[in-house]
Each structure stands twice: as C-alpha cells, then as structure tokens.
Design brief:
5-stranded parallel beta sheet, 5-stranded antiparallel beta sheet, binds flavin-adenine dinucleotide, about 550 residues
Length: about 550
C-alpha cells in the first residue's frame, strides 16, 4: 500500500519547544515515516505514513504528549491570490487591516512576519483606544489620584486632611504627555520598523464589489481583517442632548473638574473613573441598574467593593431604573425609579459609562454579507472569521471580551488563519480580567455559580487578606481571595481576587487554570514571602486547613 499524507490540526502549542514534542510524539507511531510541524504558531502538523495507518493513533499520540489534535479538514478557501472577486494578481495586498489600534497592529505585524503584503487603514488617531483614550490615560489618572489620596488629601476624611489644592491641569497635561510619548514609541516607531506595512489614512468602507474605499481610492485584498474597535455607548435617554453627559473620553479631557459627578453604570469604566474622580475631590454618586456592582463577578466582590467605595465617601445606589435626563441651569438631573419610588439626582456633570458601541456604522458591511449581533457587534467564530469567509474581525468591534490583550491575540490568530489556511482558535479559556479600582478586582475562570451551572461538583475556599502577611505589613487588609475548584480532581476552575495589586496576583492563577493545575499543585509550590500572591497559596491551603492556625509559610 502506498504512503499517504495526513494533515493534523494541533492546539495547545505555546512555544518553539512544543513543535519538537509533537514531532517526537508522532514519530513514535508505528508506520509514520516523516513528520513536519511548520512552527508552533501554525497549529498544524503534516505526517507522511504508511497507507493503512489509523488517524486515531496519531491523535492519541499527540494527546499523550499533552496537546490536542484533530484531522484537518479545512473549508475550501481559495489560495489568497485567487480569492473571490479579486482577480488573482489584481489584488493590492494579501491582507488589508481596517483599524490601526492594538488589534489591527497585531494583525499587521503578524502578516508582515509571514512575508505578506499588508496595509492598515486608519480613520482616527494611530494606536486606537487603549493608548489614546483607554487603558493608558485612565491608569495614569488612577495612579495620580491614588497617590493624592494616600498622601492624605482626602476630601471626606476631615482629620488629617491637608489643605493643598489639586492642580488638575498639571495632572491632565502629564497624562497627555505620557499618551503622546507611548503613542510614538509603541505605535509610530513600531510602524516605522516594519517598512513593508503600508499605512493608509482615512475611513474605510466596503463597496458592493467587495473592494474597500478610502476617500477617492479603492483597494482590493485577498483577505481582510476588521479591527475598528468601539466607542462609548450613548443610550438614547430622553434629555440626552440637553444634558450633554460626559463619556470616559471627554471626562478625562475636561478643562476643570466638576464639583459633583453622577456616574451611570457599575462596571469597570464606571468604577475606575468614579473612584478616580472622587479621590481627586469630586463628589461622586454611582447609579447602577443591576442589583449589584460588577454583576458578572462573584457576589461577594460586588458587595465588598460597594462597601469600600462608601467608606471613601462615594455614593452607590443599585437597582436604579433610568427614566430621563434634564437640566436646571448648571445642574444636570437624572430622573429615576428606585424601589418603586420616583427619585431624582443632581450633579454638575454626568458620566455615561453604560458600555461601548462597536464601530460598524458606515463600514458597508451589508455589501459583504457580514452578520452583526443584537448589540451591533460583528459575529465571529473561534478562528475570528466573520460570516464572509475571506473577512476576519477582531477586538472590540466583535463580540469578544473588550480587553486590549484579547484584541491583540485576536489579531495574531486572524492574520495567521487568514494567510496560512490554519484554523487556530482564539483561546479564551483562561482569560484574566482586572478592574483597576482600589482595592483591585482581578478574576480568571469560572465563578462558583458558573461552575455549578456548568455541571461541576465544586469546592470553594476563601481567605481574607488579614491572613496574608504582605497585606498585614502594608496595613491594607481590605479584600479576599476566593478559589473555585473541581471537587473530584482538585483542578482549579476559577480565582477571584479583591486586593491591592490584585492584578499582579491573578496571573499565577491564570497559568494554573491554563495548564490544568490542581489545588495540591498550588500548595506544593514555593511562593515568595512576603508577597500578595502568597495569598493564592493560602487560599489553596484553606481548602483543607484553617490558615489562622498556620505559622509563617507553613
Ligand atoms: C477608559 C477605558 C479604559 C480601558 N482600560 C483597559 C485596561 O486597563 N486594560 C485592557 O485590557 N483594556 C482596557 N480598555 C479596553 C481596550 O482599550 C480595548 O479593548 C482595545 O483598545 C480595543 O482595541 P481594538 O484594536 O479592538 O480597537 P481600537 O484600539 O479602538 O482601534 C480601532 C481603530 O480603528 C479606527 N477606525 C474605526 N472605524 C474606522 C473605519 N471605518 N476606517 C478606518 N479606521 C477606523 C479607529 O480610529 C481606531 O484607530 C479600556 C477601554 C477604555 C475606554
């Protein structure tokens, strides 16, 4: 019987060594003559073997090495130079990326690394949301406000309050300087290091013939990646135009801080900016529609962060039904119903932090058959492919979680799949999420309720920070660490942290979940003393022990 070629799709490869593991595993199978893995990012292995070889023997061998394999059966996508409507060599690019934010850059760099002709079209400021109006400006303001607050400039404390006036214009300018310098070093200079990536400035829209128009020019590509991000959602409340509420973008730009601010919303952006403004001396009231803050998180976290906020003097009301907005001179008014009663709340300014709206308007998506979900986000499969097989989409414009590292990971996966024919999934099975309040909220994996709903028999442990030496030494024992594990195997399913610098703790739990570690693995691992992440080990020990009765590091 003659030899045959079998192509395998491999998942779980995370570095160059993995290719060797796969090759070695497949070479042990009787009848295999040659194995090729074109690189760990490819997600592929090609096997030449005797004609009667069993494909299951190959997938079993890969599984034995700790990876997952399936027989590759790719949908029949034309080679990129013969893609539909592109007239083969008539295309301008192999990959055309629309949007030069974090996701778009990751896709373009990956395509360039593959030696492809790639262009990015950008209609706004280069670098997109994270650097210009998102992660960077918000986190530097949070840090400034935290330092101001820690130094005793607390508008509500009374005793010990120092009468030093806050120089908001300087803080804002320092924030702008940081944004400008990072935009230069992380985007403009990076682009210059890839001369084969063409940047086209302007707004892009798909045309009926499948091409993309920017101003007077039309471009054709073999594959496309849409990475146009999202913008603050301005829900159509009656009175919205009269009230002119602020968004996260405009709040961080105001000339003068308002005296009072009502924040509509109770998730990441609402809490981060609400606390920042309060610490800078603004009288803040948070109004949240859901019965608790951060409703997707463990209920303990929502309750505890509300208490911490209230202790700082931040007002929090949950279960609020928003009716309309209005204005009375300089006062802005939010008309609501709370527990069946009409209530109105007044402030100098209102921050609308009720989610973000994917940037799909005006993109001509109807011309290329791209499906949107009920929120207007582009629907993609795990390979980041839209309902049009030659068009991929990534980041905030899709229904993926809105984090910059998810957008960038999506960019890498989309470029790889679009240009090499692989079917690499975007693996979000261990996705950490951090809300940069003080204390921080940091989570990964399943909540207790999600785990139970998913059919797991679970065990749970919770350690208050009063048991964590680092927190005691820092005299900041606000918060706790909660772990959710599978009862039968001890495998960690979720970690939920409310703690100062909780974002630094969560990555160890993320690795544990990604690599299926158990509670015993955590307790058997050395954790440095005194670190906040030691709390993770204590929470693991708490499954079987009373941590109050343990001596240091025992
Ligand atoms: C206040 C705030 C704080 C945040 N903090 C964090 C954080 O701490 N950590 C974190 O991980 N994430 C954070 N995020 C989320 C993060 O910023 C986004 O998830 C990420 O930037 C999305 O990247 P993207 O590439 O999908 O889109 P973007 O970065 O928004 O890029 C989209 C680009 O496409 C361009 N564009 C739009 N339409 C067109 C068109 N028709 N033609 C051409 N170009 C177009 C835009 O101008 C933009 O440059 C925060 C967001 C906000 C708003």
């Amino acid at each position: 019987m003659s030899d045959k070629q079998i192509d395998l799709r491999i998942s779980g490869m995370t570095c160059a060594n993995c290719t060797q593991h796969i090759v070695r595993a497949l070479e042990t199978v009787h009848g295999v003559k040659k194995v090729e893995v074109p690189g760990w990012k490819s997600g592929l292995a090609t096997v030449i073997a005797e004609g009667d070889i069993s494909p299951e023997a190959l997938t079993d061998a890969v599984a034995g090495a700790g990876y997952t394999a399936s027989i590759k059966d790719l949908p029949a996508l034309e080679p990129i130079d013969q893609a539909p409507g592109n007239g083969g060599s008539g295309v301008d690019f192999d990959l055309l990326v629309i949007g030069a934010g974090s996701g778009g850059f990751a896709a373009a760099i990956n395509a360039s690394d593959l030696g492809k002709r790639v262009a990015m079209i950008n209609g706004g400021t280069i670098g997109g949301t994270c650097i210009n109006v998102g992660c960077i400006p918000s986190k530097t303001l949070i840090r400034a406000a935290g330092a101001w607050y820690a130094a005793g400039h607390h508008p509500y404390k009374g005793v010990g309050t120092k009468q030093v006036s806050l120089d908001w214009p300087t803080i804002r300018e320092q924030k702008d300087d940081l944004v400008t310098s990072l935009r230069q070093s992380k985007y403009v200079d990076v682009l210059a290091a890839y001369p084969d990536i063409t940047l086209i400035e302007g707004h892009a829209a798909f045309q009926k013939d499948g091409s993309v128009r920017v101003g007077e020019h039309t471009y054709r590509s073999s594959r496309y990646v849409i990475a146009t991000g999202a913008m603050p959602r301005m829900l159509p409340f009656p009175g919205l135009e009269e009230d002119e509420p602020l968004s996260s973008t405009t709040l961080m730009e105001v000339e003068q801080l308002p005296k009072s601010l009502i924040v509509l919303g109770g998730r990441a952006i609402a809490l981060e900016l609400g606390q920042t403004m309060a610490r800078l001396g603004v009288d803040v009231l948070i109004l949240q529609r859901s019965p608790r803050l951060v409703p997707e998180h463990e209920p303990e976290i929502g309750r505890a962060i509300k208490e911490h906020f209230e202790r700082e003097g931040i007002g929090v009301i949950t279960g609020v039904q928003f009716e309309r907005l209005s204005r009375d001179g300089e006062s802005r008014i939010v008309h609501t119903r709370v527990m069946g009663q009409d209530r109105e709340f007044r402030a100098d300014q209102i921050l609308l932090a009720l989610g973000r709206q994917p940037n799909t308007q005006g993109l001509g998506l109807e011309h290329v058959g791209i499906k949107l979900d009920e929120n207007g986000a582009i629907v993609v499969n795990e390979f980041q492919q839209t309902s049009n097989p030659i068009i991929y989409a990534i980041g905030d414009v899709t229904n993926n979680p809105e984090f910059v590292y998810v957008a960038a990971a999506g960019g890498r996966v989309a470029a790889q799949n679009a240009l090499t024919g692989t079917q690499m999934p975007l693996d979000l099975s261990a996705m950490p999420a951090v809300i940069f309040t003080d204390p921080q909220i940091a989570t990964v994996g399943l909540t207790e309720a999600e785990a139970r709903k998913g059919g797991y028999e679970v065990q749970v442990s919770k350690v208050d920070l009063v048991h964590v030496p680092r927190a005691l030494a820092a005299r900041d024992t606000r918060g706790f660490i909660k772990l959710v594990a599978e009862a039968k195997t001890g495998r960690l399913l979720g970690a939920h942290v409310l703690a100062a610098e909780g974002g630094e703790v969560i990555q160890a739990a993320t690795l544990a979940i990604k690599f299926s570690l158990t509670i015993d693995n955590l307790t058997d691992t050395l954790f440095p003393y005194l670190t906040q992440v030691e709390g993770l080990k204590l929470a693991a020990q708490a499954f079987t022990k009373d941590v109050a009765k343990l001596s240091c590091c025992a």
